[in-house]
């Protein structure tokens, strides 16, 4: 699978995710679920930031960034924040539906769309990280 | 070095599984649980403002246990745990005993705040909702408080456990 196909496939996938979220807002004429897009767009950022910081850091004494596979506290904290963001993106529409602020259909559409957007970003990172080096680290 | 790895006497029997992936999953699950707790309480607050028909509303009182739990959780998980066992790396820091005592006292405050948050949520539930014989939609706001603080405590426990999971290759490069 060459990179061009991957990019086309992923962009179509991403567009369908955005479409679902926008539909959930526009069909019911209630633009509250639009926040889900921002939550899921921010969700992968902590891991990306942590990875770039940790890969550029030289350790005292070892002069390498090989810590024997043991994650640093920064990486742990970023994973924690990622988990928080993902569940927030799912919990926000549920809360809005439970408090009668949006319809049931809008809840389902925005959760599905948000998960599609998130999975798309993860797939994007995963596809193009695979080429560089074989890291089988579990980064969502 | 090997001796000080064990926390309990019966360490071989309760050996934690060693895997970097399991550790990652544990940290993610802990973060997810924190979000579940936070959104449960926020849901109760919005519900009370928007839908609630009764005269009882979620006020700042209901948020105090949550704030206690969050502060406790921050403290507990910010402590460097190697400080607790003392004398381990005393050749690196000259003020060994002071650090150990400070770590123990601060950790004690952290756990007290966590436990205080959970029992405070029970107290709010009983004093504000249960004792006045409210029906269920109103009672649900108190239950949400307990669920929230329970989730925070569980999140803290899972984070603590998964931070103690060592990778099996982590000693391969030890001097």
TrEMBL record, chain A:
One of its GO terms (cellular component) is Vps55/Vps68 complex. Keywords: Membrane, Transmembrane, Transmembrane helix. Its main location: membrane. It is a multi-pass membrane protein. It comes from Pichia sorbitophila (strain ATCC MYA-4447 / BCRC 22081 / CBS 7064 / NBRC 10061 / NRRL Y-12695). The chain crosses the membrane at residues 6-27, 34-53, 104-128. It is found in: Membrane. This is Piso0_002037 protein. The keyword Lipid metabolism does not apply.
UniProtKB/TrEMBL annotation, chain B:
Belongs to the UPF0220 family. Keywords: Membrane, Transmembrane, Transmembrane helix. This is Piso0_004382 protein. It holds the Pfam family UPF0220. It comes from the Eukaryota. It is a multi-pass membrane protein. It is found in: Membrane. The gene is Piso0_004382. The chain crosses the membrane at residues 25-48, 60-79, 99-127, 139-161. PANTHER family: SMALL MEMBRANE PROTEIN-RELATED. GO terms for cellular component: membrane.
């Amino acid at each position: 699978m060459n990179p061009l196909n991957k990019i086309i496939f992923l962009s179509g996938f991403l567009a369908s995710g955005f479409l679902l979220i926008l539909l959930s807002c526009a069909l019911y004429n209630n633009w509250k679920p639009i926040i889900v897009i921002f939550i899921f767009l921010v969700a992968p950022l902590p891991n990306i930031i942590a990875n770039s910081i940790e890969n550029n850091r030289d350790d005292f004494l070892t002069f390498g960034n090989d810590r024997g596979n043991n994650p640093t506290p920064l990486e742990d904290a970023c994973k924690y924040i990622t988990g928080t963001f993902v569940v927030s993106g799912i919990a926000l529409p549920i809360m809005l539906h439970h408090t009668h602020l949006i319809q049931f259909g809008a809840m389902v559409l925005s959760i599905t769309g948000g998960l599609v957007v998130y999975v798309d970003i993860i797939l994007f990172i995963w596809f193009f990280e695979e080429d560089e080096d074989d890291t089988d680290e579990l980064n969502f | 070095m090997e001796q000080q790895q064990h926390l309990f006497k019966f360490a071989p029997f309760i050996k934690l599984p060693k895997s970097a992936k399991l550790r990652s999953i544990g940290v993610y699950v802990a973060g997810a649980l924190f979000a579940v707790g936070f959104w449960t309480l926020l849901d109760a607050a919005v519900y009370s403002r928007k839908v609630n028909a009764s005269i009882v509303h979620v006020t700042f009182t209901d948020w105090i246990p949550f704030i206690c739990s969050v502060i406790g959780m921050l403290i507990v998980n910010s402590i460097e745990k190697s400080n607790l066992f003392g004398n381990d790396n005393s050749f690196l820091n000259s003020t060994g005993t002071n650090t150990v005592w400070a770590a123990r006292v601060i950790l004690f405050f952290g756990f007290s705040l966590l436990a205080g948050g959970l029992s405070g949520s029970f107290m709010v539930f009983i004093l504000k909702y249960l004792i006045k014989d409210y029906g269920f939609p109103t009672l649900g706001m108190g239950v949400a408080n307990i669920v929230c603080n329970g989730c925070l405590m569980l999140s803290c426990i899972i984070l603590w456990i998964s931070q103690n999971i060592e990778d099996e290759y982590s000693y391969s490069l030890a001097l």
